[in-house]
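for the recovery benchmark. tokens below, seq after
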């Protein structure tokens, strides 16, 4: 646990937790990613509280402002300036989240801060651009085309899960639990989520002799 007293380690937990959290929101499924992100961020919070790590209030506000701008940039296509500002705010704010010897010196290892900033900045940029392109693209397919299609449950499906149907991975839900690997039929499409049911495999009755 003494390792968590190092601001650089806690910074890494926060950065990785945020990246996984964004991935979980972008690709909902079994809840596994959500649990990992929550665990990392919770551990970082405990480290800050237990070891009384000094936080820059201004940096925390910058990160929160960046997160708000990031959501706005995704929901409003062509807001490139807002997207760039949000990424810069998140990267800079997180790097300066912990107090250093001077206000302009990060409280974490500068080399780690640079590498994480470049990687996380690139990740957020690519993800946001994909989301903007998907949101601004005109519909090019019949939304009901998948209804009746047969696919395969890639995870356990109940209130949420993932299925492969129509040549793509989809988030899915069902009124009854469906085990991973089962064949499913699409009943409805609700935005980017499919409502499915399990296809019962017909049982072969033994012939009477």
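predicted aa per position
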């Amino acid at each position: 646990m003494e390792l968590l007293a190092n601001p650089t380690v806690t910074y890494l937990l926060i950065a990785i937790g945020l990246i996984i959290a964004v991935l979980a929101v972008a690709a909902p499924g079994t809840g596994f990613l959500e649990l990992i992100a929550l665990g990392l961020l919770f551990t970082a919070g405990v480290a800050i509280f237990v070891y009384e790590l000094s936080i820059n209030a201004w940096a925390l506000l910058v990160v929160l402002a960046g997160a708000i701008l990031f959501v706005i940039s995704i929901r409003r296509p062509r807001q490139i300036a807002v997207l760039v500002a949000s990424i810069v705010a998140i990267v800079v704010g997180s790097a300066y989240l912990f107090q250093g010897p001077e206000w302009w010196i990060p409280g974490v290892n500068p080399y780690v801060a640079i590498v994480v900033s470049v990687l996380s900045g690139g990740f957020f940029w690519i993800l946001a651009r994909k989301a903007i392109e998907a949101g601004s693209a005109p519909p090019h397919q019949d939304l009901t085309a998948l209804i009746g299609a047969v696919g395969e449950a890639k995870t356990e499906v109940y209130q949420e899960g993932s299925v492969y149907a129509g040549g793509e991975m989809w988030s899915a839900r069902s009124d009854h639990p469906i085990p991973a690997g089962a064949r499913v039929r699409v009943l409805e499409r609700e935005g980017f989520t499919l409502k499915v049911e399990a296809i019962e495999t017909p049982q072969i009755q033994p012939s009477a002799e």
